[in-house]
Prior knowledge:
By secondary structure, this protein is mostly helical. The chain has 2 domains: 1-30; 69-264, no CATH class. Strand 1 (222-223) and strand 2 form a beta hairpin. A two-stranded antiparallel sheet has the order 1-2. It has 11 helices and 2 strands; from the N terminus they run αααααααααββαα. Helix content is 64%, strand content 1%. Helix 5 packs antiparallel against helix 7. The protein has helices at residues 2-27, 36-44, 60-68, 70-90, 111-133, 142-149, 151-160, 162-166, 172-200, 231-254, 258-264, and strands spanning 222-223, 226-227.
Amino acid sequence: xxxxxxxxxxxxxxxxxxxxxxxxxxxxxxxxxxxxxxxxxxxxxxxxxxxxxxxxxxxxxxxxxxxxxxxxxxxxxxxxxxxxxxxxxxxxxxxxxxxxxxxxxxxxxxxxxxxxxxxxxxxxxxxxxxxxxxxxxxxxxxxxxxxxxxxxxxxxxxxxxxxxxxxxxxxxxxxxxxxxxxxxxxxxxxxxxxxxxxxxxxxxxxxxxxxxxxxxxxxxxxxxxxxxxxxxxxxxxxxxxxxxxxxxxxxxxxxxxxxxxxxxxxxxx
Length: 269
């Protein structure tokens, strides 16, 4: 009876939401004119003709996230990694994994699934890197690319078991190093313009990308003719590695055998 009630409730909820969205679509008519705030963003995100007021990025969302409100993004990133640190703290007492037993080596799914996983993981990583590298040009960015890349180890953990990654050196400790390097890259990028200004005896600000009326310092917007949008490209790359490694750490911890936690807690195996 409880299962039937749950199914009926779910169906009614889906139908209600569908009806609500349908009615809302008919009742709400978007404005045809562009709001003043939107005009400011559209005119300044990529405006090489007015270099005192531009982020040099055709992708407005990335410009807003890392340029206009970069300080907020840094704090949001800190909150995310505090959650990762909490997960790591739960498994702090767990030492090195022992080699898998003969039975544990047989873990994983079928040969067909493993073969398909080998192919799809390469594609996933390629797409993830593209999302991160082009986040200043098209929708995406470092967080989205890192989250996409984390799907690859997830598939491997499911298809091959956790020992497949561990035997190839992909461990929690390695991911911690990569995560730390990514966070260091975000921090260095945030203060790069300031130190350039100090070296050149000019005014500059933390989290500055391009020159402002009170500061003439700009992080190069082009590399060999290719648009990188100054700090935005470096922020995306750094966050890509930090997010990818952070999610991978959590996934590795989730598949740690229960006996490892009991052993680290002082209980008998």
